[in-house]
Amino acid sequence: MIIKLKNKEITIKKNAVPEPLHKVRLQYEYELNTNHLTPILFIRDQQFVGDHIKIDMDPTLSCVISGTDLPITVELVDTKGIVIKAYTGLLTSSRYCLFGERPLRPDFEDYIATLEKRIEELENEGEVI
């Protein structure tokens, strides 16, 4: 998960490949002149300190329903623990369970949208009953 910090807001960059919830790689993109500060990520009652770390998101997201936005906060602190900047945003997660042969499709939502579009085209042609 790449968290982009800019103008007191958080943007989560879309993953190219799905990650297991028990081992989410966390990385930040900082505003200019803030990369020397230590980030602290707050999600619900948990906090995650540092950059380029692996975290277990399963307990944090265990009761999140697909499409539910979860408020998150990132504080950048100096070496004395004083908050220099704070950012807020929303974390949108989707839970999937994929069965079958590997490789799993990293573009799962795009694939489903393509299939739905193809079904609609076939229905318009009268080939789908």
Question: What is shown here, in short?
Answer:
The chain has 129 residues and is of the alpha+beta class. It has helices spanning 58-61, 108-125; strands at 2-6, 9-13, 24-29, 38-43, 46-49, 53-55, 69-77, 83-92. The strands form 2 sheets. The chain has a 4-stranded mixed β-sheet with strand order 2-1-3-6, with no helix packed on it. Strands 5-4-7-8 form a 4-stranded antiparallel β-sheet, with no helix packed on it.
Top keywords for this entry?
129 residues; alpha+beta; 17% helix; 37% strand
Can you offer a commentary on this structure?
- The protein is α+β, with helices and mostly antiparallel strands.
- The protein has one domain (2-97).
- The protein contains 2 helices and 8 strands, in the order ββββββαββα.
- The chain has helices at 58-61, 108-125, and strands spanning 2-6, 9-13, 24-29, 38-43, 46-49, 53-55, 69-77, 83-92.
- The termini are far apart.
